[in-house]
Amino acid sequence: MRRALAIAGVVCLALPGVALGSEDRPTRNELESELICPTCKSTLDQSNAPVADRMREVIDERIKAGDSKSEIKDGFVDQFGPAVLAAPPKRGFDLVAWLLPLVGLGAGIIAVSALAWRWSRSPRERDHPEPEPELNGRARLEPVLERRLDDELARFDA
């Protein structure tokens, strides 16, 4: 039992190193999907432009040199500007690009909830005022409608 716990402990201690290795040794595929070709404005993994081919070569050279993912991306940002990143950084004004969809989604949920609550109420609660009190078992009608009803009932009885 102790041996199994010791092996599990060694494995758990080794796993964070593997996770950190991904940042230290990025793959070309990871970076191609996170960078945009300045010529055709699509990600490098979808671009056939000569600039994209040159960017792929630079990525391969920098990976062989041992640069991390963030160092490679920072190099392209220095050369082409922040527009070369497929996703804007999550800081400063660019944070708006991440937060605005969430705010819009929240506002939409609130609006739909308010409409559903309003539509689920009965019409009497929603729009109609309390009716006038009944007189002799009948609700009070406008005089024109009351005359018309009396005429119709008299014709029906005859």
CATH architecture of the largest domain: Orthogonal Bundle
The number of distinct structural domains comes to: 2
Structural class: mainly alpha
Overall residue-averaged pLDDT value: 81
Q: What is the assigned CATH homologous superfamily of the largest domain? A: Cytochrome C biogenesis protein
Listing every helix as H and every strand as E from the N terminus to the C terminus, the arrangement reads HHHHHHH
Task: Tell me the total number of β-strands.
Answer: 0
Q: Which term fits the overall shape? A: elongated
Query: Could you describe the largest sheet, including whether it forms a barrel?
Result: none
Distance between the termini: 102 Å
Task: Please write the CATH class name of the largest domain.
Answer: Mainly Alpha
Give the low-pLDDT segments: none
Task: Describe the structure in your own words.
The chain is an all-alpha fold and 158 residues long. It folds into two domains: 15-87, Cytochrome C biogenesis protein (Helicase, Ruva Protein, domain 3), CATH 1.10.8; 96-157, no CATH class. The chain contains seven helices and no strands. The protein has helices at residues 2-24, 28-34, 50-64, 69-80, 95-120, 123-126, 143-157. It is elongated. The protein starts with a helix and ends with a helix. The mean pLDDT is 81.
